[in-house]
């Protein structure tokens, strides 16, 4: 706040320098001033002159003692010290016992002990209580300039002799410290250290006006001297503040703050320059500092980096400044003028209704209108507090209050009541200083010395003299100490430290209500009517006290409560705020709800420490702030910020959070609007549950109607007709799923509903208790349920008693009664066994032998109790033969077991029986049971050890793949000197090392290797062992083979290529080498193998089929296709057309299976070869038209066939078949080709004349049109033998049966090779031939399926 001028004293000592000193102590505010007129003036808090003391010369120093009782004054013209006693207004001259005048003064803390330093370096100690004087000579050699005491009575003196002396209270020198220059401004404080030591342990002083010297009494060997930047100028003044911090002012206008913590010494916390030219003084009080310079007085905040918080320009300038002892007044002195400013006011404020009053100056009150009312003047603001009037007081008040008609102030024992409408103040004197004051209407109440007085403000009616004044506590409460009071329009309320809360009616003028709390009460904060109050007890607990019901309701959390305010808005009368000094915590008091009376926490709002809450109205708090103003703060619990955020997610999140707050504040209509905006079922459901909890049934029905929750709406409509509060609360708790709360409500008002609720919740004990008194007819059924529950919780004796108790003895022939009693008897049977009465339990269970579940339960219980005989019998009766047999086996009742074995499928039972039979020596029976139990190892063991049936054992091992069984068989063969079989079974049992040693010993390593290859669990190191062995024997084939299986492909390739040089091993070695190259994925190995196959290494090329296999294994399909074409050409040259066709077909199928396009050359070879092969089949079947078409295709590509003899044969067949098929024009074309010199000489003589006849007699008519079928790709008409569509240029697949192109609507494929075919033609061929002409496999024509999706075969198009 900006300092407010309180008063100005103009030239109290004439012109010239003016010095002043505030009185010390908590309750004193006197101000001593001196100047050039050789007097000291004493002024009171308001600036009035109280005393003027004449001196024999100019004042050279003055000092108040620490209690503010004495003022010591010295002059350079006198050897004595003048002492002024403020209480007695008495002056005393004190002789120091020294001949030279004093130069400095210092009072001790603990007692009025005054230290006086002199001009010549001597010291005098004077105790005012004992008047004892101790002169001490030679303390220093020159003038003592300053002195200081600490709280441990250590006296420090600084002198012009550049020494610092540390002395005790008797003046004895403890230590002498030499400085480098003249010291001044000596102070004591506490330095920050890592280890805290209480007490003022640090001496600080300024050396040569440039450096700050710090001397720690606890570390005397390491003083610290801090130097500062030259631009700062000289040190004018410094002050300690906070936890070991120092504020230093420099002559150049700079102010810096440093820390004395050893780790931070020398570091500036902040540095500001608040004065342009010069700085003359600084002062510090708590977090505020003041500085003088350039004729201005500035306030700065030391906790906010030195930020200026206020500035004034005093009359006469400002050269010195200082705070009063309480920090409320700041004085500044200039040239002959002193100004006093108010910087901090006592927190005196009060409120009543919509108005508040606050202390705006030391003796001034300001009245504010905080909330707009209908009859307010037009100039009054409706949004912010507005000042209505100001009241000047004769003295500073200690307590203020506000009523409906008066502003009240009390100073000490004197009270004044100022009418709000104007007029003279009404004054009243109280018996003692007033601690609290409350006003309402025509009455006022004061609290003093643990007592209270209620009195009329104005003169009462003479007919009612008792209303003039009344003292509390009343006689019947003598000894009680009142700690807090409140006054409303109807009641005077007070509380005592013994826990009494009493309401005194103003209209009846008698006590209306009394309540005694369990412990003492500290404070009571009432609402405007007094019906609700927040009670704070001596255990620091807070409760809401409802006076009409005389009930307490605890707050959900514990806080350090300083005050509380209740909302004065009628609709929010249950909302209140708790003030903790740093925040306002909003709560809602729910007096009636489904959960009973309780308090809900809503939200917390942070406030500044100097803000005191006065009024709460609909979410706005009006607080008294610094400077006597009143401000409005919106509570976070009512804050609507962010509800219209542009960001949808943030807006919805804020709206959901706001709905939660509205529900806690019970503002259901507003919550409805926001739920409608958010429109989420969860939010609607929360709103409905909150309305139900608040017993607002009608609103809850609206919400659940919106949710379309028919069941809940019906339940709430039924509850809406209930008038009794306990029943209604119980039913609504049940609707919310709060069973325990519902039960408590219903037990107090509705027994039948409570019985139904207990039964629904499974609380059978309470249900039985209610049924016994409210509904005896239902008691047996409830007791039965309770017994079942007790059985589940293992309380068996109590369960047995309840089962017996629940049996019905009347109307026993009734079917329902019979069913009920049967359940009871079953429970008795189970519980009898549990409780040890086995025979009763078994007998009772056998009475109901038709109840299989009961028999099984009882048998299980008997088994747990180790009553195996009874348990087995019950299991047998229940049909659980396996369990019965298991128990009979435990009992070794073999006859009973044998009777049950045929009915048993359980492996465990058979296993137990087999072990028992084996122990008896009945091995055949044991073997059968072991096999039924699937314990094959035991069966193998029996066959080997007992039955000597090796064949059966081997069969079992091969069937079951048992590792352990294989080991046993291997051992048997080893013992029988059959190493071959032993090796085989050792491998099966995973005993590879043992198998290897046995194989090497018997020369069976090749056999061992072959067995390993067939085993999926073989290890690479096992194959490597074999490879190393054969490598040593120079058996390159086997070494390479086993290196391949060991995964060492490089070595494998080396040895396999060596073995491939031998004709005997070439084929096998190359085959394995191809597999090694494919498995290794190493291109270098592949190149080595290719070079070997092509003969580049030894000049001996190998069969191209090996190269083809390599490319296929490496998935290099293009290279494989080229190789396949070469192979096919070689086969054709040898006349093996079918073998050539199979090579081409196999590669085409492989490429199609992998989705790789078939090369055009390969497809051409496959088409021509298959067409040529089909000719004989069609000729044999008499289908000369198909044979002719295929021969025409072959003739068109006759150059594909390698020898001229084959070409002539194909052309001759084409001419003959075309003649048979009636294709005379095509026959003529190829007959002429045969007559050329190239082919004429090689025509078979028996066909020469026929061909010459065709040439001599050409057809005279035009050639008939070609037969066509639609293209399966585009649908255009395409000649049946043509495999390329002229329209879409698609390569059309051919039919494996006819050689023609496939037809979309008559499509199938061979089930074996998956080549496409025309369904009707292929089916006819299979009926006649029975084999697929492409793959040669037997195919039943009935396996053919029509294929609708022709794209499956069109996708595999040839590639270049």
From TrEMBL:
Residue ranges constituting the WDR19 WD40 repeat domain according to the UniProt record: 383-638
InterPro entries xrefs: Beta-prop_WDR19_1st, TPR_IF140/IFT172/WDR19, WD40/YVTN_repeat-like_dom_sf, WD40_rpt, WDR19/dyf-2, WDR19_WD40_rpt, Znf_IFT121-like
Domain IF140/IFT172/WDR19 TPR, chain residue ranges per copy: 857-1032
An annotated GO BP: intraciliary retrograde transport
Organism classification: Eukaryota, Metazoa, Ecdysozoa, Arthropoda, Hexapoda
Domain WDR19 first beta-propeller: 19-334
SMART domains listed in its UniProt record: WD40 (SM00320)
One GO location term (cellular component): cilium
Highest taxon in the source lineage: Eukaryota
Places the protein is found: Cytoplasm, Cytoskeleton, Cilium basal body
This protein's record includes keyword Oxidoreductase: no
Protein name: WD repeat-containing protein 19
Alphabetical list of Gene3D superfamilies matching this protein: 1.25.40.470, YVTN repeat-like/Quinoprotein amine dehydrogenase
Keywords: Cell projection, Cilium, Cilium biogenesis/degradation, Cytoplasm, Cytoskeleton, Repeat, TPR repeat, WD repeat
UniProt key word Repeat: yes
All residue ranges annotated as the IFT121-like zinc finger domain in the record: 1293-1338
């Amino acid at each position: 706040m900006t300092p407010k001028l309180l008063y100005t004293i103009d030239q109290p000592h004439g012109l010239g320098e003016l010095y002043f000193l505030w009185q010390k102590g908590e309750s004193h505010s006197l101000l001593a001033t001196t100047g050039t007129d050789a007097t000291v003036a004493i002024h009171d808090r308001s600036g009035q002159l109280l005393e003027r003391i004449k001196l024999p010369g100019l004042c050279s120093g003055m000092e108040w003692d620490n209690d503010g009782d004495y003022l010591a004054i010295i002059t350079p013209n006198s050897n004595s010290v003048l002492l002024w006693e403020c209480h007695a207004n008495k002056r005393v001259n004190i002789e120091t016992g020294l001949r030279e005048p004093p130069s400095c003064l210092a009072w001790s803390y603990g007692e009025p002990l005054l230290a006086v330093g002199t001009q010549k370096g001597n010291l005098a100690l004077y105790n005012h209580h004992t008047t004892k004087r101790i002169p001490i000579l030679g303390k220093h050699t020159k003038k003592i300039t300053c002195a200081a005491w600490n709280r441990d009575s250590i006296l420090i003196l600084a002198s012009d002799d550049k020494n610092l002396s540390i002395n005790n209270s008797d003046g004895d020198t403890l230590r002498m410290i030499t400085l480098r220059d003249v010291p001044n401004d000596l102070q004591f404080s506490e330095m920050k250290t890592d280890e805290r030591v209480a007490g003022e342990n640090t001496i600080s002083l300024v050396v040569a006006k440039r450096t700050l010297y710090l001397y720690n009494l606890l570390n005397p060997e390491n003083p610290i001297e801090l130097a500062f930047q030259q631009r700062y100028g000289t040190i004018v003044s410094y002050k300690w503040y906070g936890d070991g911090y120092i504020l230093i002012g420099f002559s150049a206008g700079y102010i810096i703050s440093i820390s004395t913590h050893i780790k931070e010494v020398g570091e500036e916390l902040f540095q500001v320059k608040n004065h342009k030219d010069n700085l003359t003084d600084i002062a510090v009080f708590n977090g505020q500092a003041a500085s003088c310079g350039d004729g201005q007085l500035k306030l700065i905040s030391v906790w906010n980096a030195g930020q200026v918080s206020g500035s004034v320009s005093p009359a006469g300038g400002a050269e010195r400044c200082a705070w009063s002892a309480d920090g409320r007044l700041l004085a500044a002195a200039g040239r002959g003028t002193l100004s006093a400013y108010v910087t901090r006011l006592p927190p005196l404020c009060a409120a009543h209704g919509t108005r508040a009053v606050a202390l705006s100056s030391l003796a001034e009150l300001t009245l504010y209108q905080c909330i707009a009312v209908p009859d307010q003047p037009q100039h009054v603001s409706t949004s912010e507090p507005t000042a209505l009037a100001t009241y000047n007081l004769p003295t500073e008040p200690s307590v203020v209050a506000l009523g409906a008609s008066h502003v009240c102030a009390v100073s000490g024992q004197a009270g004044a009541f100022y009418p709000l409408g104007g007029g003279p103040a009404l004054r009243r004197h109280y018996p003692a200083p007033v601690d609290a004051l409350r006003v309402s209407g025509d009455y006022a109440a004061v609290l003093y010395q643990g007592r209270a007085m209620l009195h009329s403000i104005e003169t009462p009616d003479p007919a009612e003299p008792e209303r003039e004044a009344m003292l509390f506590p009343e006689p019947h409460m003598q000894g009680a100490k009142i700690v807090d009071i409140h006054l409303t329009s109807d009641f005077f309320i007070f509380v005592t430290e013994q826990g009494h809360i009493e309401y005194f009616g103003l209209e009846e003028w008698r006590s209306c209500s009394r309540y005694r709390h369990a412990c003492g009460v500290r404070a009571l904060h009432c609402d405007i009517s007094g019906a609700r109050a927040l009670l704070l007890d001596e255990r620091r607990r807070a409760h809401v006290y409802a006076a009409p019901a005389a009930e307490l309701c605890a707050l959900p959390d514990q806080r350090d409560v300083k005050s509380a305010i209740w909302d004065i808005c009628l609709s929010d009368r249950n909302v209140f705020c708790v003030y903790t000094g740093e925040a306002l915590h909003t709560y809602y008091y729910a007096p009636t709800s489904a959960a009973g009376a309780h308090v809900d926490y809503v939200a917390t709002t942070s406030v500044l420490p100097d803000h005191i809450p006065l009024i709460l109205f609909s979410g706005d708090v009006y607080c008294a702030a610094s400077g006597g103003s009143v401000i409005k703060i919106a509570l976070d619990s009512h804050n609507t910020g962010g509800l219209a955020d542009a960001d949808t997610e943030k807006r919805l999140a804020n709206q959901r959070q706001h709905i939660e707050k509205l529900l806690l504040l019970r503002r259901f209509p507003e919550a409805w609007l926001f739920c409608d905006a958010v429109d989420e079922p969860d939010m609607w459901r929360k709103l409905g549950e909150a309305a139900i909890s608040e017993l607002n049934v009608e609103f809850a029905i609206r919400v659940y109607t919106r949710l379309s929750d028919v069941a809940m709406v019906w339940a709430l409509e039924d509850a809406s007709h209930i008038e009794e509060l306990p029943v209604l609360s119980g039913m609504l708790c049940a609707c919310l799923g709060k069973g325990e709360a519902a039960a408590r409500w219903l037990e107090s008002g509705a027994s039948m509903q409570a019985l139904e609720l207990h039964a629904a919740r499974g609380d059978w004990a309470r249900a039985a208790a209610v049924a016994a008194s409210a509904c005896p007819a239902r008691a047996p059924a409830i007791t039965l349920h309770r017994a079942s529950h007790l059985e589940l919780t293992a309380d068996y004796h109590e369960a047995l008693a309840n089962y017996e108790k629940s049996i019905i003895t009347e109307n026993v022939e009734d079917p329902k009664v019979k069913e009920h009693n049967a359940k009871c008897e079953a429970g008795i049977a189970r519980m009898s066994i549990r409780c040890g009465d086995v025979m009763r339990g078994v007998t009772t269970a056998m009475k109901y032998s038709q109840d299989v579940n009961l028999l099984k339960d009882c048998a299980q219980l008997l088994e747990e109790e180790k009553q195996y005989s009874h348990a087995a019998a019950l299991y047998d009766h229940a049909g659980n033969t396996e369990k019965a047999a298991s128990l009979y086996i435990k009992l070794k009742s073999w006859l009973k077991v044998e009777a049950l074995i045929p009915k048993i499928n359980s492996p465990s039972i058979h296993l137990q029986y087999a072990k028992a039979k084996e122990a008896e020596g009945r091995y055949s029976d044991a073997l059968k049971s072991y096999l039924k139990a699937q314990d094959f190892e035991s069966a193998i063991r029996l066959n080997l050890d007992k039955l000597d049936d090796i064949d059966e054992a081997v069969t079992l091992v091969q069937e079951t793949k048992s590792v352990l069984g294989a080991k046993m068989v291997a051992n048997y063969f080893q013992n029988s000197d059959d190493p071959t079989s032993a090796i085989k079974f050792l491998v099966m049992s995973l005993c590879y090392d043992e198998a290897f040693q046995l194989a090497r010993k018997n020369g069976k390593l090749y056999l061992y290797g072959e067995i390993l290859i067939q085993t999926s669990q073989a290890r690479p190191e096992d194959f490597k062992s074999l490879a190393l062995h054969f490598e040593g024997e120079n058996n390159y084939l086997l070494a390479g083979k086993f290196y391949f299986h060991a995964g060492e492909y490089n070595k494998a390739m080396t040895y396999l290529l060596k073995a491939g040089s031998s004709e005997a091993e070439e084929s096998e070695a190359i085959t394995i080498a191809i597999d090694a190259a494919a498995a290794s994925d190493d291109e270098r190995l592949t190149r080595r193998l290719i070079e070997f196959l092509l003969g580049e290494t030894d000049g001996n090329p190998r069969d191209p089929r090996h190269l083809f296999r390599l490319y296929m294994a490496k998935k290099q399909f293009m290279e494989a296709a080229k190789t396949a074409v070469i192979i096919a050409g070689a086969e054709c040259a040898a006349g093996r057309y079918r073998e050539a066709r199979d090579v081409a077909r196999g590669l085409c199928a492989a490429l199609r299976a992998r989705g790789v396009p078939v090369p055009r050359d390969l497809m051409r070879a496959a088409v021509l070869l298959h067409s040529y092969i089909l000719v004989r089949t069609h000729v044999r079947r008499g289908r000369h038209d198909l044979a002719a078409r295929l021969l025409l295709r072959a003739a068109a590509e006759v150059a594909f066939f390698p020898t001229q003899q084959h070409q002539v044969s194909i052309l001759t067949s084409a001419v003959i078949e075309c003649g048979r098929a009636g294709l005379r024009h095509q026959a003529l074309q190829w007959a002429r080709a045969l007559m050329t010199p190239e082919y004429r000489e090689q025509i078979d003589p028996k066909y020469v004349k026929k061909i010459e006849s065709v040439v001599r007699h050409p057809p005279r008519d035009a050639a008939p049109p070609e037969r066509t079928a639609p293209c399966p790709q585009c649908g255009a008409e395409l000649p049946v033998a043509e495999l390329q569509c002229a329209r879409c240029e698609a390569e059309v697949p051919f039919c494996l049966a006819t050689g023609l192109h496939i037809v979309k609507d008559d499509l199938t494929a061979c089930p074996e090779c998956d080549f496409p075919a025309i369904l009707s033609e292929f089916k006819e061929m299979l009926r006649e031939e029975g084999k697929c002409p492409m793959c040669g496999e037997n195919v039943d024509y009935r396996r053919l399926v029509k294929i609708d999706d022709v794209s499956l075969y069109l996708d595999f198009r040839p590639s270049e």
